[in-house]
Amino acid sequence: MRLHDRRETNRRAFQTREARFDCSRLSALVAAGILLSVTVPCPLSAQPSAPEDFTVVVLPDTQNYSALYPDTFSLQTRWIEDNRDELNIVFVVHVGDIVDYPTSLTQWENADNSMRVLDGIVPYLVVPGNHDGPPDYQYRFFNTYFGPGRFGPFDYYGGNYPPDSNQNNYAFFSAGGHEFLVLGMEYCADSFPISWADSVLGAHKNHNVIVVTHDFLENDGRRSTCGNSLWESLLKRHDNILLVLCGHLWPVARRTDLVNGKPVHQIMQNYQTNANGGDGWLRYYTFSPADNVIRAKTYSPALHQYDRTGPNEFDLELRDLSPSLTPTPAPTPRKGIDIQLNATSFLHGDPLTLAARVEIPIWRAFDAYLLADSPVGIYSMGLDGRITPGIRPLAAGVPRIDRFAAFILRRFPCVAAMNGTTWFYFVIVEAGTMPPVSRLSALSPDRTRHVITMDKEAIKVQRR
Question: Tell me: the pLDDT tens digits for 181-204?
């Protein structure tokens, strides 16, 4: 079976908070003899800090909200948006039964409006429930509103099955110094999507996996018929699965089983039988790698309160996660770096300042280059502060970094040699793999092998 898989990328930086560093200042002489003040980005050699906590939010069955209480649905997603930073929310999953009746356009539009709050804000996936399509309507309306076309533009989205449907899907996020894969499975998956999912999991053995499906547990903690089929034919064969999340029945249930001695927590949460279609209750899981614990909490944005009873607030063992992020063959997406200049036009002697931001975590060994493509040739800045002709790294063999921001050039006086247009390039490549190019314009994360990410900006310098 062909695996439908967008190229895996280092996901957009929803996952890692920005760290700022105090950096040392160096001085160097440019070929023209002008003193250059350099701020070296210290995180290139900084030791990684302890992994921070991060949160995954679960939206249980929303069928009643889509049908009768659309404002409650929107309260949930707006609460996620408002608390993204405070809770470090890195991913959201919907466990299915998005709507109550699969051919009601009003219900799908209500769901679409509520979920669209998260588009481009927090990565999320949805899976279909039994109210969202089968057996009579297949997944026609589900795919109209939540098909591959909706998720395809987002870098975190991994792929789908069948090729024209999003009823099975997967996505990625990075958090706490580790890589995660979220696998979404359709309601009562048969052998074909299970075979597809097996190929996805087999290709990502070093990822920590969260599985989302609609029907998995009975309300007494036993697996349902659909859940047991999925467990026996797929899940118990992969020991990198951390959580299995579901809804369908109500209100809550959970169990833990061991696979190769590793705990797999299986959890059902669904509040649709509560007053007002569910009173807006949602569940969120805060992962604390430093404490080896997952903390489950249940909150209602509609009632502005937590449910602190035992079945709705509890701790789970967080086993040792798969190894820290390692090099992967696919490139980080464009816009992983952003460089900014204090102006675009200068006169000789005007002060030029260049700030660089790496906006994604890079968890592989890499080399960093700060290059100037000037009218008189290509020049490189070294970590020792020297400016030399040709292409040489600013820093080489860096094992890993989180996001950072630093001034690279600070009030550098524009010199006569820069007369005309000069392009500044900040380039990150896999360690030891900078391609031999005669023009920097040939470099591209999309077209040049081993280029992880880069950015460039141009200035014009004129005589006074």
Answer: 999 999 999 999 999 999 999 999
Judge if 313 and 342 occupy the same domain: no
Whether residue 67 is predicted with pLDDT greater than 70 in this model: the reply is yes
Question: Within 13 Å of residue 129, how many CA atoms lie on the same side as its CB?
Answer: 24
Considering its fold, how many domains does the chain have in total? Answer: 2
The secondary element (H helix, E strand) that includes residue 110 is: helix 105-115
The CA-CA-CA angle for residues 391, 367, 204, to 5°, reads 140
pLDDT tens per residue, range 112-138:
999 999 999 999 999 999 999 977 778
Judgement on whether residues 126 and 204 belong to the same structural domain of the protein: yes
Average pLDDT estimate for 308-328: 79
Q: What is the CATH number of the domain that holds 158?
A: 3.60.21.10
Longest dimension (CA), the chain: 81
**Range(s) of the domain holding residue 333:** 19-49+327-462
What number of other Cβ atoms are within 10 A of residue 143's Cβ?
A: 19
Its pTM stands at 0.65
* 352 occurs within a structural domain: yes
8 Å CB contact between 95 and 217: no
Neighbours of 92 (CB within 10 A): 26
Which stretch, 200-209, 225-234, 446-455, has highest mean pLDDT? 225-234
Domain assignment present for 242? yes
**CB of 102 closer than 8 Å to CB of 135:** no
Please check whether residues 217 and 264 belong to one and the same domain. yes
Residue with tokens 């900014």: 340
The single residue listed with the structure tokens 């404002």 is 71
Shared domain for 276 and 373, answered yes or no, is no
Burial 223-244 (b: 16+ CB within 10 A, else e): bbebbebbbebbbeebbbbbbb
